[in-house]
Each structure stands twice: as structure tokens, then as C-alpha cells.
Design a protein that fits this description.
3 helices, binds zinc ion, alpha+beta, 7 strands, five-stranded mixed beta sheet, two-stranded antiparallel ribbon, 170 residues
């Protein structure tokens, strides 16, 4: 959804319906935009975008790799400024992390939604807190298939014990 900044009215624009997007907001068709409530407000040459995005993204569990549809509620508070012509003009401080750019009078709201949603995704999602993950030896999903790998690995403390008891018997 491309917004022409010069055509924004002084009151701004409310986007409250995902169906307002002629093209899907997400490039990945498996990502689903569940809800959007954004206010696009011109502020001089700048534009602010504030509100919320709800989306469901098919992630994979960081331990067992099972598919894990993840629902995210994204709080959006972004200021966009016209992209400077030359790179030398670019002086962004640490305070300006939430500053983005638009160019040629065009604000791509779909791209903004995709970026903000991506930033909100968990780095290492887990299907459940105590997910047992994949066995590093045989690759089995230990939530589904208990494997014997751990038990087969000789425990050095047990080895010492068995030597000790063998000596006692002998
Ligand atoms: Zn898992
Ligand atoms: Zn195993």
C-alpha cells in the first residue's frame, strides 16, 4: 500500500482494515495480517505512523524445529523523514533508531508493516518452555520419540564405580 505523502490530509489517514491493501502487506504468503490499526500523520516534511499490527507468522521452534505459528501484537511508533539526497547529510544519532525514510513522496505502508512485524518476532521461539529439542546424536525429536542416546553414553563417574566394585569382588 503506497501512500503519497503530499496527498495526505492535515488530519492524516487511518488504516484499520487489512483489506484496504490492494497488494498483501507481507511478501511471504504464509504470513497473515490479522489486524491493523494505524494512523498516518503528516508532520511538516515528516510522517509519523502510530498504532498496532496483529499478525500470525509461521516460525519454527528453536529447539525441535516443529512448525510454530506465532501470533504477534506489534506496537508501531515510527517517524519517517524524506530520504536525504546525499549520504553525507545522513547524521543519525542513537535516539533516531525509530526514524525511517521515505523517498519520491511515496510511503510504502506494506513494507513498513513487514519491517515492524519482523522486528517484533521472537529471536528463539519455543513450542513450549520445556521443549526437549532434537537429540544431538540421532536427530530424533525428543518430545515425540524418547531415544536411548543419553543413556548409552558412559558416565565417567559410573565407570569409576564399576571399577571399584569389580576390585572389591576380585
Ligand atoms: Zn520445540
Ligand atoms: Zn538420540
Amino acid at each position: 500500500m503506497i501512500i503519497r505523502v503530499s496527498e495526505l490530509s492535515p488530519e492524516g489517514l487511518d488504516v484499520r482494515d487489512a483489506r484496504q491493501f490492494s497488494t498483501p502487506a507481507f511478501t511471504d504468503p504464509e504470513w497473515r495480517l490479522d489486524g491493523v490499526d494505524l494512523h498516518v500523520q503528516p508532520d511538516g516534511d515528516d510522517v509519523t505512523v502510530q498504532g498496532t499490527i496483529e499478525a500470525t507468522v509461521p516460525l519454527a521452534c528453536g529447539r525441535c524445529l516443529e512448525s510454530l505459528p506465532t501470533h504477534v501484537n506489534v506496537l508501531v511508533d515510527v517517524r519517517l523523514t524524506p530520504r536525504p539526497a546525499a549520504r553525507d547529510d545522513l547524521e543519525l544519532g542513537a535516539d533516531d533508531l525509530d526514524t525511517d525514510f521515505y523517498a519520491n513522496d511515496e510511503l510504502d505502508l506494506g513494507a513498513l508493516i513487514q519491517t515492524e512485524t519482523t522486528l517484533a518476532l521472537p529471536m528463539k521461539p519455543l513450542c513450549r518452555e520445556d521443549c526437549r529439542g532434537l537429540c544431538p546424536a540421532c536427530g530424533m525429536n525428543r518430545n515425540l520419540t524418547p531415544c536411548e542416546c543419553r543413556e548409552q553414553k558412559p558416565d565417567p563417574r559410573l565407570a569409576v564405580l564399576s571399577q571399584w566394585s569389580a576390585r572389591r569382588k576380585g
